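Weekly structure sync - notes
Attendees: PM, LS, DV (DV joined late)
Agenda: review two folding runs queued last week.

Item 1: First target. Sequence and structure tokens pasted below for the record.
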Amino acid sequence: MKLSIFITLFISISTSYVAASSLDPIIPYLSVHSQNYSATCPVNQILHDLDGDSLSRGEFAYTHNQLEIGTELSGWTIGVFQRYDYLMQFSNDTARYMYQKNNDIGIDANEEYEIYLQANHLRSNGIGIGYKYSFSEKLSSKLRLNLLRSSDMTDGIITGDLSTSDDSYSSDLELDYVYGEDSILGRPPENISGYGYSIDIDFEWAVNDNLNMLFEGRDLLSRLRWDNITATQAVATTNTIALGDNGDVDLRPAISGVEYYKDHTQKLPARYLINGRYKVTRGYELGAEIFAVDKYIFPRILANWNYGELYLNSSYDFKAEAIGVGFSYGYIDMQLKLDSLNIEKANSIEFALNFSYPL
């Protein structure tokens, strides 16, 4: 019901407004955005099943990657995109256990592991329709509706405990998740299909000649509907299994549960950005910024320079310990943020490229 109202509103306004503004230039654009962060290890190490150096303490990892092409006309934008998103939240014990298991180190004896892993993963494509409206010369807003289609997802949680002694261990785990491919219990994959939407909202406010404020909200409201999707609810219990000389265990738990089909609604983690920039001199400004994904907050400071058509910017992210640099010139804008010049060692990797050219 909510989605149909938004679609009707966008279509009715765009038809009348674009028809009245047919002389405005058409501006095709290309946008690439890749944002990746891991609190425990380099992003590259996650992609290689944690193979590598020991992990730092941390409780989440996320990524948002999106490629989009589209066009802008009279304040309206319409684009087609592909995107890949995940947010993984976990306990330190879970990360430590997975690292030891994947690197054949053997789990620690006489330890209590608190197992917690919540995963929200989605690969999708779709269409985005947006409109920018100026309330006045100083205040503007942009509303965007993203229509999503997906055939690849995971949404669920594993919780429980694992206890070890000198020569044995026991575990009690609960699993509840929906998926396209079961990577835990090996259920044969089946074709799935989900449809939904997400909504983005921006506000930009020139408070005075020197101070500017910006708010960007991505996926502030989102719903993806999956009908008759594969799902599993199970309890896995293992008691008094011997440990090997190097701590290896042969995990063959007694599993009781059900594999079934269900209707499921998936929500994407919301992303927010709030920043303020103050013009210190004619070509130089300082600022502060807060970026957040779900409940995780990244505070940043900014310094920007302007030389005619060339705009240079820099930033430092205190949580990710990452330095960002970028530039805008003419029809191109590029940004890069890293916490290490060695990509394979970087826990934070962000890249953005925007290109547009008026016809």
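Item 2: Second target, run right after the first with the same settings.
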Amino acid sequence: MILHIKDVKEICSKIKTALDSSEITTVTETRELMADGDTLLINITNKQYYAQCRVKLNAPATLRATVNASTFLKLMSMITTETVEIYTTEKTLMIKGNGEYTMPMIFEDDGLVELPKIRVETVEKTFDTPSEIFNSIIQNNLFKIGNPKKPVHGMYYIDNNGAITFTSSSACVNAFSLPEDIKFIIPQKIGKLFKLFSGLVHIKYGHTTRKDGLSQPQIMFETETFMLAANLNVDEGTLLTAVPSSAIRDRVNKSYPYVVEINKDMLSQAINRLSVFSGDFGYLDFTCNSVTVYDDSRKNYESLIYQSPSTGFSVGDTYSVKFNLSFYKTMLDSTSESVVSMTFGDHQAVVTTCGAVNHLITEIH
């Protein structure tokens, strides 16, 4: 089987993203290569999810091999020939590129190791949706949380009205529509793979019954070149209930006294410069025509003029907000919008709108 090295490196890049390095086992360190016809399949799993990359072959081929994932990835990334030939002998995977390489296949109990697949056995919902929705979730809803206060913090809550990610002091509400009345919750370990989706995504949601009798929620995402199937949390119902989706959306969509529009890049750069003096926290003082960004000591500051006339302010009014400016800058940098809208005034939270995405950050008192 002869492949263009460009195609191999592209598929290896996707699989590398799907590798789970947090748990080292025979399964997580293993890569399965399969060809039966005109498509090469490269599979990987950590038992919570099963990922499969697909590449079209120039000619039909038959191949099955299970090898060490890390070794295979490193070798493929270093080959510089235009094509690479891959074939098997009795117990080895043979690779010809710049030279000839032998990789031992992995056997268990005298048989070639076969990765455990995840299939949605009982399908409850099935529909298609554009990959741009999932790319937007990855771009905007990613929260890096070192020690979440609740298991649900930082997970991706997704329903037919959009996606929500939240912590005890902030939330991101991404508005979009799905064609089915559905809700599910995805851990970030699985959600990070959304960036591998392209084109139309076919989704199957359902469950299987485990050996202990419990219902195991499952979901599968499939595109032309990539498939991701995952076992969701058995206690998914409790996790879904723990997401105050209606309350968060109500806070985002409520009418606030003040509305201002600010150049995103200028605000981000100002926060970045002031972080030199006091780290994460600082103040935003809003007036009729401008916002002044202070560090935590209020000794250093920068003022920015609004992009358009503000709403709700009278001459002489000032509204001061304190929150984590470092986190706020990360949020600003995640959006491609040049101008962001900020609404506030209830002494509870500030809502920043970036296109179809709303970020809610609780004020510090």
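Discussion on item 2: The mean pLDDT is 90.
Action: LS to circulate a short write-up before next sync.
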